[in-house]
Amino acid sequence: MGRRWAPGICAVALICLAAAAKGDPDPDELDRAYPIVEPDYGHTKLRLSEQGLEAIRRIENPIAVVGVIGPYRSGKSFLLNQLLSLSCDKGFGVGHMRDTKTKGIWIWGTPIEMDVDGTKVSVLYLDTEGFESVGKSNVYDDRIFALATVLSSVLIYNLPETVREADISRLSFAVDIAEEFYGRVKGGDIAFEPAKLLWLIQRDFLQGKSVQQMVNEALQRVPNDNGDKYIDEVNQIRDSLAVMGNNSTAFSLPQPHLQRTKLCEMDDKELDPLYVKRREELKQVVGSIIKPKFVQGKTLNGKEFVSFLEQILEALNKGEIPSTGSLVEIFNKAILERCLTVYKEKMDGLGLPVPVDKLQQIHEVANDQARMLFDKQHFGKHHAGQSFLKLDEEIKKVYRNFLLANEYQSSKLCEARFSECEDKMDHLQVLKLPSMAKFNAGFFHCNRTFVMECVGPSKERYEVRMTKMLHKSRALFIKEYNNKLFNWLVTFSLVMVVLGRFVIKFLLLEIAAWVMFIFLETYTRMFWSAESLYYNPAWHIIVSSWETIVYSPILDVDRWAIPIALLLLFWLFYWRCFGRRKRGSRSLLPLYKNSHKNSSRPRSD
Questions:
Q1: Mean pLDDT over each residue of the chain, to the nearest integer
Q2: β-strands 185-186, 189-190: how paired?
Q3: Tens of pLDDT along 76-96?
Q4: CA quadruple 311, 317, 320, 324: dihedral positive or negative?
Q5: Of 85, 522, 536, 542, which one's alpha carbon is 20 to 30 angstroms from that of 146?
Q6: What is the pLDDT of residue 1?
Q7: Above 90 in pLDDT, residue 421?
Q8: Which stretch of 180-189, 272-281, 289-298, 396-405 has the lowest confidence by average pLDDT?
Q9: What residues contact 52, with CB distance under 8 A and at least 6 apart?
């Protein structure tokens, strides 16, 4: 039987080992304390503990955190066990040795479910490593304090006996956080609210004063006639805490028993009744001020809280000393991305290329919109300047990219229009029937199209190239125009002679063609060169007639030269073969007669 169960037992063991290796805590084992942040080897910076993070990731409700801070051996872990109604052997570890028992930051694995303003909230209790313990640097303590301040919804400052100057100076980071984020509102939701500060003074006798009066007196300015720098810094913290008095409260708790080293062995019956009463009142006070943790206007579930913790820890570990400015940058990161998105969407609405002044105008409008959004939603008052400078730098970087893209698109478009005009001018240079009117029409149309369509920073450069190209093309066309036209007219006159003599036998047409041919040939020989012909008024008349025939807005003979020539040949053929038979030999104009049929002279043969 034992051998039969062996494979199943091995399989279960393998599954358990795999779960343990993955870091997922067993649901039955969540009812204990887990580390979420541990010190590094040098005990100066912090690192995450994956086992504790897995316990948090399981939480689906909005999370609230109650954190306890204070000097080492001040009873923080015992206080948390009391608030959770846990014994020392089951709850957070309690130590009475010289070395601190808690290392880093721990949480209780099973959250307390509460109803806060109609919302079910999971409350995590957080224990921190005590200040001023042996073998640690002040920077490490500052990181622990800063992380607890940012993560907590309620921050219990556990102090034995009284409030010391050192205890107040410890709050410098909390003050910076509160001054940066306190009161920031995005729409109707809280963007980020610092932890409620609860001064917990463990003292039996208050000497006729309330604990709030004791705290208020400790927060009053101390005279500094000698100008001591340290006193000035503490006084500034006092002033800030006094201004934010509505974000803090004070509570006194008497000693539970004179034998503090044996507290874990005692039950409530053995503890001081006044302590038990005040402890229950403390539970009610803590429960009344608990609020879910808000980050950027929304609550956080387990996975979101872990992601938030990772970002904050990265910011606090950045540099030698944890700074509020680094935290502000983390909070403003998403807002900067939204502002850049607004800027890019506005700029993307432009169809590049555009004129530089228009691009600059849209850039200024988009930049103003992004800055207005940043002013409304950014975190931080004093340290937001760094985020603003980063936004300005990113916008300038995006704008430079738009300038380059605009120049590229402008160059591409202008090059395309320039090439089209260049091809057009080349085509006009080789017209079958040269026409100055057609060249001028193409010239002005090309220039007008280029001016209208070529836009952007490359326009000025291409306008210079365009002007040079057009002037060169025009000069070349004019140079060749008269010579081509002269040759065409000579050819045309000879063709008309042939047509008038042999095809249609039209005497006047033949005479006019001979007159044109003789004029063109004899004039150039009489005046030594063809160029002198081009200044003759008769030549201007011929050119005007040619231009009227060859090109007009209605008919472009050069374009339809071949179809028109074919049509004329067909008409001549039809007229020569069939037209004269139908009309007989009568004509209004003199035509050539058949000499053999009409002659009365006798044949010589």
A1: 80
A2: antiparallel
A3: 888 999 999 998 888 887 755
A4: positive
A5: 85
A6: 42
A7: yes
A8: 180-189
A9: 34, 35, 36, 37, 106, 107, 109
Amino acid sitting at position 508: L
Cα–Cα distance measured from residue 406 to residue 399, given in angstroms and rounded to the nearest whole number: 10
Residue located via tokens 């992380």: 147
pLDDT greater than 80 at residue 278: yes
pLDDT one-digit tens code per residue, 231-256 = 887 787 777 676 555 678 899 999 88
pLDDT at 264: 84
Question: Is beta strand 112-116 parallel, antiparallel or unpaired with respect to 154-160?
Answer: unpaired
**Cβ-based neighbour number of residue 544 at 10 Å:** 11
Count of alpha carbons within 13 Å of 84, Cβ hemisphere only?
30
Residues 382, 563: Cα–Cα separation, whole Å: 83
> Omega before 223 cis (within 30°)?
no
Q: What is the phi-psi region of residue 584: left when phi exceeds 0, alpha when psi lies from -120 to 50, beta otherwise?
A: left
Residue at token pair 């995590």: 124
pLDDT at 347: 94
- Which segments of 11-161 are extended strands (E)? 33-39, 46-48, 63-69, 105-108, 112-116, 119-128, 154-160
462: helix, strand or coil? helix
Q: In this structure, are residues 139 and 322 in contact, taking their beta carbons and an 8 Å threshold?
A: yes
3-state SS assignment for residue 508: helix
Contact 62, 73 (CB under 8 A): no
Q: Which of 5, 57, 583, 41 is nearest to 301 (CA)?
A: 57
Q: Identify which of 150, 177, 122, 127 has the alpha carbon closest to the alpha carbon of residue 303.
A: 122
Minimal CA–CA distance to 322: which of 33, 34, 44, 38? 44
Q: What would the pLDDT profile of 107-132 be if each residue is shown by its tens digit? A: 999 999 999 999 999 999 999 988 87
Contact in structure between 149 and 173 (CB atoms under 8 Å): yes
Length of the chain: 605
Tell me the sheet residues that pair with 202.
160, 253
**77-105 exposure pattern, b = at least 16 Cβ within 10 A, e = fewer:** bbbbbbbbebebeebbebeeeeebbbebb
Give CA–CA dist 241/432, Å, rounded.
Answer: 94
